[in-house]
């Protein structure tokens, strides 16, 4: 069989980003509206710093108003809730994102649920989760990573996934569960698997679509994959290479093995990551338009 197609998330994200930039310019010209994104980061986790910097840079490249609030790791919950309340009221801000994970003394649910559902561009508010689960996404925000994965899957297989079997590995609120909801809404037959699943390789071998989001480097092997399947790798794992503390990023899927079996798969880096950021811009643009009553 021919080698699988490498799904170029970076190129697709650049295309989408160009379209968002054009629409943002049009909003400014026709309505005097500038989409605004506020990103809140707490503490100094290096990986989170990189993600937040990329989000800010992309927002600015799209012509958005972008503001970052960097708070110390020991910020009180009351101070953080006060900042979110201020941002909820700020009419220049259409989207609010609090970068996760949070330091242990902060209650993640209390924080994410304090963001107005109309500014919840992460799609973590229960209102938005509920709308997604009920397939009512007209005015809801869908979490960025699964939304980006879905676009790449539908590029390969078409919008309607009737008759396709999909396996999601991982049951997180950020990726696994919303991913399953999106696949189901597109008529796929969906299985969510996790650390307690029995014989995961056999379950995967039945899947036309595999979305791996577990955080274990190279876990999904070539012999787990049905010939011709579409494989989406959400993992970002830093692994040591060689001796002198050099490291590289790798996904949850053994890329070289999967390439020999799948019909298409995403690389790490350059697959899901860039798509996640551009979906955040898409959600922010949408939030701005909804706030201004523009269709
Ligand atoms: N940390 C890792 N992924 C995400 C995400 O999608 N949103 C937020 N807010 N934090 C994250």
């Amino acid at each position: 069989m021919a080698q699988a197609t490498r799904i170029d998330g970076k190129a697709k994200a650049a295309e989408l980003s160009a379209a968002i930039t054009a629409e943002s310019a049009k909003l400014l010209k026709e309505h005097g509206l500038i989409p605004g994104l506020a990103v809140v980061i707490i503490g100094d986790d290096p990986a989170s710093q990189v993600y937040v910097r990329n989000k800010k840079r992309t927002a600015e490249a799209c012509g958005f108003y972008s503001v970052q609030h960097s708070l110390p790791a020991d910020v009180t919950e009351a101070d953080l809730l006060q900042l979110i309340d201020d941002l909820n009221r700020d009419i220049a801000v259409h989207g609010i994102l609090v970068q996760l994970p949070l330091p242990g003394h902060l209650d993640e649910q209390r924080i994410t649920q304090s963001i107005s559902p109309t500014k919840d561009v992460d799609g973590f508010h229960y209102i938005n989760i509920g709308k997604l689960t009920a397939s009512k996404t007209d005015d809801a925000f869908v979490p960025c990573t699964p939304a980006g994965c879905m676009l790449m899957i539908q590029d390969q297989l078409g919008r309607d996934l009737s008759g396709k079997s999909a396996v999601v590995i991982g049951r997180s609120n950020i990726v696994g569960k919303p991913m399953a909801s999106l696949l189901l809404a597109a008529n796929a037959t969906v299985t969510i698997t996790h650390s307690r699943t029995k014989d995961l390789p056999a379950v995967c071998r039945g899947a036309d679509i595999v979305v791996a989001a577990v955080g274990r480097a190279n876990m999904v092997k070539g012999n787990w994959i049905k010939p011709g399947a579409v494989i989406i790798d959400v993992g970002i794992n830093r692994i040591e290479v060689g001796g002198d503390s050099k490291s590289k990023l790798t996904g949850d899927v053994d890329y070289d093995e999967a390439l020999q079996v799948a019909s298409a798969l995403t690389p790490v880096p350059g697959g899901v990551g860039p798509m996640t950021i551009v979906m955040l811009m898409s959600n922010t643009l949408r939030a701005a338009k909804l706030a201004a009553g523009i269709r």
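Residues 97-100, 122, 144-145, 174 surround guanine (CB under 6 Å). The chain has a mean pLDDT of 97.
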